[in-house]
């Protein structure tokens, strides 16, 4: 584009207000941000995602309890009711969230534990309380938790307890650590592999293109779940469960780049004939630079959308595979592992709160999709 | 007045005569309406001719029943667990002799008498007179001879003779028994060496096969056996014959004559099987009604146990076994589903969870610690068994060691409670005494070599949450546990290698009857079958190879081997059997090689609300004898309208 082309436009914007003029001087990233901000759901989703990852990073601090802390008398205890207001001794009502501890007794007819709130055991929920000790990132040893009750013998069960009387909320929070992070490396790997291989395939064409395309077709024909099964059987037995799963996600990502590669190739095929590529070539820019500086940014919006879909795919894959018993399993805490127990009809019928990890999965996956949607619109700020 | 008196006396006499006469009458036996119809149509001989001269009379649990109805249960596709109710194998009900779990005595069944000679080498047995196969053919010693000569010792079918039928002398050579036919009903098993334990097997097996049917396909009797096999679509005659002669859970041949209460009628593509009453079944109730009461028995194949349970809740099945932890839901659904939940005591030494340390582990430092009784006591004291019972067994089990319990005839009072108290302080004191120092600020104790005391072991992935709790118990005494959950198949493989530090598996098979008649697996190293060794596999190898392989065990173990060997040679219930049994229990309990946490949990059932004649709820249903409820004779179950 030349400056002559732009000039007539400048005449047109003269009557416009100053604020709108900013649009024409703003950088691409600024434009993207403005555009993104307009997508309200995407913004909310982004905040949710940032929060979720913060919670995952500071799981030990945010979770009220050590996820392994069990209490036999609280086996399958339902979520505790939180009372927001309390009455002081002189009868004034003030805001002081609190719960009542449970007393449990085995029902002589059904043999299940019956839980009753203990009116004597009032426990205010406080911020920055002392609880189970932990080492944050293996460095800082402390026992301060974001919130909790002071009496450690009465665990705070905001989302109820599992069979061993462990706090479900704490377990969901710890589960976020594994579930939100385990697929990331795999996603990043397949993302770059896809751009690179798709890029050279589309850019050079010919024999390179043929080889890469045929390879993609072969890989496409391998069914994922049997492959996953085989891999979990073939990996060294003495590897820990997490390491094993990690290895599988990486191997799968080595196969997962094909979707992106196809898109990138298609774009390259059409874009490589554009004049700006010719211009770059003529001015002696090397090919890697042409691919990553000139070509890739021109369809970045598509890639962003793909990436934001790949991450929830990995989260869903973890959940689904662990649920089926092919991925992670106890004692690793992840959302999929927590959901394994909801395969039991007794749990669905009597202890439905144990299905809550599914809600966490839904929220995070939806948030990723909305953010992806917002980003796709925003990534190409010049289109309307 | 006199007239009235005479009339009264006459009436009284008549009444007496009236009640006496039918007792001698041939029509004393009654049969199910569906069979009576067949008799009336001339398709079946009358019931008196079908029953043996002297049928087995069953004292029913509760009440004389009514005929009709259907028992419906479920099973999973690949379950071959022969000992489960779902398989209605009910071996105890039609085995050679009946083991009565109430009296712990053997009673006549297919055999009317069995006698072991004084030299303990000849077992003489007599078949019940007038017994018929389910197709009406008489049961004779021909069937015994066919079973032995044409099946068990026919090398195409059995290249080597099953060790159940051989005895081993001092020279270590296994000699097969001989089967001697004395007359139509009497025969003898002659062993080359004294074999008193064999009698117990009579309650688990039948040693005959329907010759009149199977000989039609056997090369010893027909020339075209290979042709028959290929016509039926089999590659080899061996496959063909094994398939058509299979009479247990895997039976698919509906024509095979059997001696069970129900005969296989149909098998569908999902392997769901329907059985119909055996018109020639040889048992009656006290009122002379031919058993079974129930017309049909159906075993539906479901996708998984969880689905089986879910469908049971709808009342679809009237007889199913469920997990103990599922009973709160089952009880809540009782009324809606039209069933009741039923709990029967069992004699499982340690339900689903027992373990032993590997006393012959190659890591000398660890195995030294494991072999110290103080370490084992400390581990036991660190376990809060009451809490465990609450967490995993709804508080319905009994906190105990994995030692045979009070239902054992040689039980020593309180011996299963040894070292079961929860006492972390005492445990720590014992480990301190051993010199395993626990430094301040450290998570675990230190081994003599200076390494932290952490035991690494694979575990069964199905019991991971139990091991998570166990890990926390051991942590309170400074013993680290680093476990890797693996599949049961993989664990099985690893347990055979002597490389696993903590061997764990379920804790069944400790009952005396199983121990004596099958294998004393829970009484000697490795405290299970060698292919599931819990600990001390090399000691066990030393013993089985006569000292050629393995590792020389300590004196106490050698002594234990000797006592158990001697015990298995004693006739069931004899004085020596009891006193040796007591010694076995005492040595095992005091040395605490094999650990249990909670045992004797009840078995939970879902039973149709109108099902009658099941054993009362407080009746012990042995879990280690094949047949489970079979030992309480399921042919007497009936459905009240």
How would you concisely characterize the structure shown here?
The complex is a heterodimer of chains A (384) and B (641). In chain A, 57% of the residues lie in helices and 13% in strands.
Structural write-up:
The complex is a heterodimer of chains A (384) and B (641). By secondary structure, chain A is of the alpha+beta class. Chain A is 57% helix and 13% strand. Helix content of chain B is 30%, strand content 19%. Chain B is built from 22 helices and 26 strands. Chain B has a 4-stranded mixed β-sheet. The model of chain B is unreliable at 20-26 and 80-89 (pLDDT under 50). Classes of the chains: A alpha+beta (384), B alpha+beta (641). At the A-B interface, helix 16 of A face helix 10, helix 11, helix 15, helix 17 and strand 20 of B.
Layout of helices and strands, plus pairs?
The complex is a heterodimer of chains A (384) and B (641).
Chain A: H1 3-13, H2 18-25, H3 28-38, H4 40-57, H5 59-62, E1 83-87, E2 93-106, E3 113-124, E4 126-136, E5 140-148, H6 168-181, H7 184-204, H8 206-220, H9 224-234, H10 241-256, H11 258-271, H12 275-282, H13 287-295, H14 300-323, H15 335-340, H16 345-350, H17 357-379
Antiparallel strand pairs in A: 1-2, 2-3, 4-5
Chain B: H1 2-24, H2 33-40, H3 47-50, E1 56-58, E2 70-76, H4 91-94, E3 97-100, E4 105-108, E5 111-116, E6 122-127, H5 141-152, E7 166-168, E8 174-176, E9 178-181, E10 186-190, H6 198-201, H7 211-214, H8 225-231, H9 237-245, E11 262-267, E12 273-277, E13 283-285, E14 296-302, H10 305-313, E15 319-322, H11 327-332, H12 334-337, E16 339-344, E17 350-357, H13 364-370, H14 373-381, H15 385-393, E18 398-399, H16 424-433, E19 454-460, H17 464-475, E20 480-486, H18 488-495, E21 502-507, H19 512-517, H20 537-544, H21 555-568, H22 575-591, E22 594-596, E23 598-599, E24 603-608, E25 611-612, E26 638-639
Parallel strand pairs in B: 1-13, 2-14, 19-20
Antiparallel strand pairs in B: 3-4, 5-6, 6-10, 7-8, 9-10, 11-12, 12-14, 15-24, 16-24, 17-21, 17-22, 18-23, 25-26
Helix pairs in contact in B: 8-9, 14-16, 21-22
């Amino acid at each position: 584009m030349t400056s002559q082309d732009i000039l007539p436009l400048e005449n047109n914007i003269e009557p416009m207000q100053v604020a709108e003029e900013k649009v024409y001087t703003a950088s691409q990233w600024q434009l993207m941000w403005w555009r993104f901000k307009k997508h309200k759901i995407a913004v909310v989703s982004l905040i949710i995602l940032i929060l979720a990852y913060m919670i995952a990073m500071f799981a030990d601090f945010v979770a009220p309890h050590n996820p392994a802390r069990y209490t036999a008398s609280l086996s399958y205890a339902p979520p505790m009711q939180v009372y927001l207001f309390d009455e002081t001794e002189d009868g004034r009502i003030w805001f002081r969230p609190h719960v009542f501890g449970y007393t449990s007794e085995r029902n002589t007819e059904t043999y299940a534990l019956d839980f009753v709130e203990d009116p004597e055991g009032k426990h205010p929920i406080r911020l920055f309380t002392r609880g189970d000790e932990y080492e944050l990132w293996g460095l800082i040893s402390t026992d301060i938790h974001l919130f909790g009750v002071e009496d450690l013998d009465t665990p705070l069960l905001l989302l109820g307890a599992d069979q061993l009387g462990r706090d479900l909320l704490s377990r969901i929070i710890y589960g976020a650590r594994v579930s939100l992070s385990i697929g990331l490396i795999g996603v990043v790997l397949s993302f770059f592999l896809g751009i690179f291989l798709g890029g050279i395939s589309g850019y050079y064409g010919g024999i390179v293109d043929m080889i890469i395309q045929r390879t993609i077709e072969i890989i496409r024909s391998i069914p994922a779940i049997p492959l996953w099964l085989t891999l979990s059987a073939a990996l060294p037995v003495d590897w820990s469960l997490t390491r094993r799963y990690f290895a599988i996600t990486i191997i799968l990502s080595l196969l997962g780049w094909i979707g992106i590669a196809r898109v990138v190739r298609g774009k390259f095929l059409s874009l490589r004939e554009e004049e700006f590529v010719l211009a770059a070539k003529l001015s002696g820019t090397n090919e890697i630079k042409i691919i990553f500086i000139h070509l890739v940014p021109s369809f970045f919006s598509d890639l962003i959308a793909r990436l934001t879909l790949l991450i929830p795919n990995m989260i869903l894959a973890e959940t689904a595979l662990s649920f089926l018993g092919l991925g992670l399993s106890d004692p690793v805490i992840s959302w999929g592992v927590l959901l394994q127990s909801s395969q039991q009809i007794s749990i669905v019928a009597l202890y439905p709160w144990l299905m809550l990890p599914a809600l966490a999965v839904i929220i995070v996956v939806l948030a990723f999709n909305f953010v992806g949607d917002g980003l796709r619109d925003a990534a190409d700020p010049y289109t309307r | 007045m006199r007239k009235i008196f005479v009339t009264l006396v006459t009436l009284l006499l008549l009444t007496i005569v009236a009640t006496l006469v039918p007792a001698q009458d041939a029509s004393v036996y009654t049969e199910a309406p569906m069979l009576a119809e067949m008799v009336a149509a001339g398709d079946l001989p009358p019931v008196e001719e079908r029953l043996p001269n002297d049928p087995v009379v069953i004292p029913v649990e509760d009440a004389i029943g009514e005929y009709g109805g259907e028992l419906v249960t479920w099973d999973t596709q690949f379950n071959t667990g022969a000992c489960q109710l779902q398989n209605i194998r009910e071996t105890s009900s039609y085995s050679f002799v009946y083991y009565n779990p109430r009296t712990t005595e053997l009673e006549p069944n297919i055999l009317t008498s069995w006698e072991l000679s004084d030299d303990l080498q000849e077992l003489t047995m007599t078949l019940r007179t007038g017994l018929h196969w389910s197709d009406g053919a008489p049961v004779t010693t021909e069937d015994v001879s066919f079973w032995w000569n044409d099946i068990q010792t026919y090398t195409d079918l059995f290249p080597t003779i099953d060790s159940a039928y051989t005895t081993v002398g001092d020279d270590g050579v296994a000699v097969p028994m001989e089967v001697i036919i004395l007359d139509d009903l009497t025969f003898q098993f002659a062993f080359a060496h004294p074999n008193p334990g064999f009698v117990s097997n009579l309650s688990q097996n039948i040693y005959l096969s329907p010759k009149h049917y199977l000989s039609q396909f056997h090369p010893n009797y027909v020339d075209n056996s290979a042709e028959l096999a290929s016509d039926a679509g089999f590659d080899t005659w061996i496959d063909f014959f094994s398939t058509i002669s299979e009479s247990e859970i895997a039976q698919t041949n509906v024509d095979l004559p059997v001696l069970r209460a129900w005969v296989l009628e149909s098998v569908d593509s999902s392997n769901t099987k329907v059985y119909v009453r055996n018109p020639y079944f040889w048992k009656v109730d006290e009122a002379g009604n031919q058993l079974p009461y129930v017309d049909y028995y159906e075993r539906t194949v479901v996708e998984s146990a969880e689905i089986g349970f879910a469908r049971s809740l709808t009342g679809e099945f009237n007889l199913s076994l469920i997990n103990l932890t599922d009973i709160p839901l089952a009880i809540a659904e009782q009324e809606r589903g039209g069933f009741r939940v039923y709990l029967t005591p069992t004699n499982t030494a340690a339900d689903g969870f027992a373990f032993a340390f590997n006393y012959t582990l190659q890591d000398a430092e660890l195995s030294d610690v494991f072999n110290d009784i103080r370490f084992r006591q400390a581990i036991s004291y660190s376990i809060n068994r009451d809490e465990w019972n609450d967490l995993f067994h709804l508080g319905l089990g009994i906190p105990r060691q994995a030692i045979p319990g009070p239902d054992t005839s040689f039980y020593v009072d309180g011996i299963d409670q040894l070292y079961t108290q929860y006492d972390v302080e005492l445990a720590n004191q014992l480990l301190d005494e051993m010199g395993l120092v626990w430094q301040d600020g450290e998570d675990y104790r230190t081994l003599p070599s200076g390494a932290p005391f952490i035991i690494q072991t694979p575990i069964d992935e199905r019991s991971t949450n139990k091991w998570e709790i166990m890990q926390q118990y051991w942590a309170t005494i400074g013993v680290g546990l680093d476990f890797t959950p693996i599949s049961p198949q993989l664990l099985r493989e690893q347990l055979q290698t002597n490389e696993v530090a903590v061997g764990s598996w379920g804790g069944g098979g400790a009952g005396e009857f199983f121990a004596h008649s099958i294998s004393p697996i829970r009484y000697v190293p490795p405290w299970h079958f060698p292919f599931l060794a819990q600990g001390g596999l090399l000691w066990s190898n030393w013993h089985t190879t006569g000292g050629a392989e393995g590792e020389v065990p300590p004196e106490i173990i050698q002594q234990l081997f000797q006592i158990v060997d001697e015990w298995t040679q004693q006739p069931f219930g004899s004085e020596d059997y009891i006193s040796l049994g007591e010694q076995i229990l005492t040595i095992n309990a005091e040395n605490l090689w094999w650990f249990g946490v909670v045992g004797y949990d009840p078995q939970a059932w879902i039973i149709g609300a109108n099902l009658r004649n099941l054993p009362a709820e407080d009746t012990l249903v042995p879990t280690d004898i094949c047949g489970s409820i079979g030992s309480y004779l399921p042919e007497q179950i009936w459905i009240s309208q």
